[in-house]
Write a structure and sequence with these properties.
- With 246 residues, this protein is α/β, with parallel strands linked by helices.
- The chain has 7 helices and 10 strands.
- It folds into 2 domains: 121 residues, Transcription Regulator spoIIAA; 91 residues, no CATH class.
- Strands 3-1-2-4-5-6-7-8-9-10 form a 10-stranded mixed sheet, covered by helices on one side.
- Strand 8, helix 7 and strand 9 form a beta-alpha-beta unit.
- The model has no long low-confidence stretch (mean pLDDT 94).
- Keywords: Iron, Iron-sulfur, Metal-binding, S-adenosyl-L-methionine.
- This is Radical SAM protein.
Length: 246
């Protein structure tokens, strides 16, 4: 397996949380920093990863988040998830949704999924631009993403939405809302607000759009999901169903 980091943090409830960040992706999103992180990648066996995580937890149970570029392309990911669950941890898996067969294999052991939605799922051209692949491959990506969404609706999942104004805006947000209906919540992330996530794209060099515009998008999404978290240069804030107006 190839990873770029194993990081210990504290979750909101004070329990230990370990973030395991993988290297390598089956998409080529032109704004993504992960496609430039080759120098940070470290090869580790599944047993080495488990040993490192067990050293951090020291027998405690906590939460493990699997993310980075794309965990589902890693050989041994199913066995790793199984082992982490056997150790008693809650597991969150962040994915682009392009491997529904892998999602099916881990779905019983994963407690929560985070699925990135890039644009309305009926807009093939927009998704092709955002994933950096041909239109034909974008059609395959969207077909598989829809299958993944069908699977994770049976569990708990968050829709992770990077707000690049050309693709996520007041014109497209309702279509996106319909696509993610059934999610426990959504996160609207202000593009370029965290330099560890993004590279400049489409002429945008500073965080966009303004936070107030993201709040308007959040109010629309609350017609489809019960809770929306906003992440921006101003920090994090949460909007819930009773905040649709205002």
């Amino acid at each position: 397996m190839r990873i770029t980091g194993i990081e210990e943090v504290r979750s909101r409830d004070g329990k230990k949380l370990v973030r395991l960040e993988f290297f390598g992706c089956n998409l080529r999103c032109p704004y993504c920093v992960h496609i430039t992180e080759k120098d940070k990648a470290e090869k580790m066996s599944m047993n080495e990863i488990l040993e490192r995580i067990r050293e951090i937890f020291k027998g405690e149970r906590g939460q493990v988040t699997l993310g980075g570029a794309e965990p589902t392309i890693q050989k041994g990911i199913v066995e790793l998830v199984n082992s982490l669950k056997e150790d008693g941890h809650r597991i969150t898996l962040k994915t682009d949704g392009l491997k529904p067969d892998v999602i099916r294999d881990v779905i019983e052991d994963v407690d929560r999924f985070v699925i990135e939605i890039k644009a309305p799922l009926d807009d093939i051209d927009a998704n092709a631009e955002l994933i950096g692949l041909s239109r034909q491959k974008a059609e395959v990506y969207l077909e598989k993403l829809k299958k993944t969404l069908e699977l994770v609706r049976e569990k708990s999942f968050r829709a992770w939405i990077r707000v690049i104004p050309d693709y996520v805006n007041d014109t497209t947000i309702r279509a996106i809302g319909r696509d993610i209906k059934g999610a426990d919540d959504a996160m609207l992330y202000q593009f370029l607000s965290n330099p560890t996530y993004d590279r400049e794209f489409k002429g945008y060099t500073e965080p966009v759009p303004p936070v107030e515009e993201i709040r308007k998008l959040a109010r629309v999404l609350l017609e489809y999901v019960p809770r929306v978290e906003i992440r921006s240069i101003e920090g994090a804030e949460v909007m819930e169903e009773d905040q649709k107006k205002g």
